[in-house]
């Protein structure tokens, strides 16, 4: 007998297999019991026919409780109606552990209840699908950057300075020094790019931002590439090719999960490079045309503004050349207009907001020193960063993609809290 998983049962059509699984749900109809089984790799229906298995096995199957763990033996059958294309004709059931009073039942539950039981909510079909899509995005990320010749570098999580100011950072003590949980690995990735050419990082970042919107988390994961000898336009090309690669990989490898989520995949099929671009100036004009009369040049965009701009396009859109006053100290000014910088935010369709922020970085030592002074940054804390401009400085660019917002957009999730295994929110540190 073959011991296998639900995701690979298609290799054993017509054969008897053994699967370790949990009972997600069940129903019975007279002398037939239908077991909804999951094993982490997927979901499958097990059909137990009393006349074929006998009284003892049938009663055991019929009396199984939700989330009990078991070994199920059965014959693999093709079934076009099943999401996976297969079902299991059960021949035997061995209970490993009987679950009692599982708290998340098939009825509706409130969000706070589900968040309190996040360790169990992860087992549900939609949450399982979210995590599988997240995993595919991560896999496709490594595939893309490895193929493009990038080297993965891991920046520190504890830092002594902040790339974008300390107002939204978690402070801690590093023995007798002040330290912060990283809000970005970018500055360190710039140093790595000067050594290795093209690099990327993938790790947790932290923002002490008191926001309760559906787009925000306190702890989230970022993919942050940096590229030596890449100017602004070069970086935009990498960004759109990367996002297109990720979306197409999910469409190819997560059909079952997207179906479980009820995702309209036609909206994703169109996500191929190149992406449209609009300058900040033109975005202001567009917003005025759409009735946002209060916004003026120099204002930052909020969620309603980003959504209104995104609705004009059926792909992610770059908003470029923001005012210098809105952006961090390290962004390169536009050589034709020093009131704006060579930066871009990529806005996802369907109201999911900014998923990428990026720019060409300042590579002139004197200009960087001037910007640091304007932002009241301690020169000693950033000495190492400034020195990158003293010893063989080159034009370079980079960007950061927020993983959870990207998962939310691709999955069609209502809130980013469902796109990370254990979300950290303004008022939630449990479980």
UniProtKB/TrEMBL annotation:
Asked if Chaperone is a keyword of the record, the answer is no
Query: What is the uppermost EC class here?
Result: ligase
Leader sequence segment: none
Q: What is its EC number?
A: 6.1.1.22
- Indicate where this protein resides in the cell: Cytoplasm
> What are the protein's UniProt keywords?
Aminoacyl-tRNA synthetase, ATP-binding, Cytoplasm, Ligase, Nucleotide-binding, Protein biosynthesis
UniProt catalytic activity = tRNA(Asn) + L-asparagine + ATP = L-asparaginyl-tRNA(Asn) + AMP + diphosphate + H(+)
One Gene Ontology MF term: asparagine-tRNA ligase activity
Q: Know the name of this protein?
A: Asparagine--tRNA ligase
Its source organism is Alkalihalobacterium chitinilyticum
